[in-house]
Amino acid sequence: MPGILILLLLAAMACGEMSGSVHTASCVPEAPCLDTDALHARAVSAAKGITVSHDKNILLKRSSFDKITKKERLHGCVLLKICDFYQAVFSLKLNLSEQDHISDRQGVFVDLVGLMQRLRRCVRVKEHKCRHLYAQAEQKSLTETTNEKRRGAKDWAIIQITKLQRATEELMESETQDRAVDELQALHSYIPGKGVRRRMPIKAPNK
User: Fold this and answer.
1) Is residue 95 left, alpha or beta, with left meaning phi > 0 and alpha meaning psi from -120 to 50?
2) What is d(CA 100, CA 121) in angstroms, rounded to the nearest whole number?
3) pLDDT (tens digit, 9 = 90+) per residue, 2-47?
4) Domain boundaries, the chain
5) Read out DSSP for 180-206?
6) Residue-wise over 40-73: b if at least 16 C-beta within 10 A, else e?
């Protein structure tokens, strides 16, 4: 028994000596999965000078979206749709064609593309598990959902996906693009929840 305790103590000391972020029980270093502060800062920078009305929001109110965040699959599936939507927004803002490479560009929207790709990797849910939910959203309009007071997390998820689909259809309109960028400033507060990993292992650099 004393020998086992000594081995455990040595292992703990070895983990403690490793520099960097938090370490798991197996001594694998981890870092926050997504820097939401960086996302918010880039979003605020991108939205400078944009003024929009708030009568046709793309993202749900936080109080409604919070119900989605409590369900891992629903939260993850909705965030994947949000990632797709904003990647389309950023491509338009950068005027990217299929032949263009993002590495050739610089600026806040390039940073946001990278952060959105990172968010997608942080989502716990695989896209194939969302197909049924997406199909249900395709079949329902915003007016066909239940009374607002009786809506559950799934109802709100379907409404959010439908709102994103509608905004995508109108994305060539500059007003829709501006509204999307303006609302991006609040997205960092929609990310915490069951559908997102809090931390991610740090990969060792290739030698």
Assistant:
1) left
2) 23
3) 544 443 444 444 444 433 444 444 555 567 899 999 999 999 999 9
4) 1-32, 34-197
5) HHHHGGGGGGTS-STTB-SEEEPPPPP
6) bebbeebbeeeebeeeeebbbeeebbbbbbebbb
pTM of the model: 0.80
Spatial neighbors of 142 by CB under 8 A, at least 6 apart, are 159, 162, 163, 166
Please state, in angstroms and as integers, the Cα–Cα distance from residue 9 to each residue in 5, 20, 72, 150, following that order. 6, 20, 36, 54
CA pair distance 124, 76, nearest whole angstrom: 6
Half-sphere exposure (CA, 13 Å, Cβ side) for 69? Answer: 16
Contact 79, 122 (CB under 8 A): no
Q: List pLDDT tens digits, range 43-95.
A: 999 999 998 887 789 999 999 999 999 999 999 999 999 999 999 999 999 98
Both tokens of 109, joined, read 């929207």
**79-100 burial code (b ≥16 CB/10 A, e <16):** bbbbbebbbebbbbbbebeeee
Q: Can you tell me the distance from the alpha carbon of 197 to that of 149, in angstroms, rounded to the nearest whole number?
A: 30
Between CA 11 and CA 18, with CA 17 as vertex, the angle to 5 degrees is: 100
pLDDT at 95: 86
Amino acid at 13: M
Q: What are phi and psi of 108, to 5 degrees?
A: -65, -35
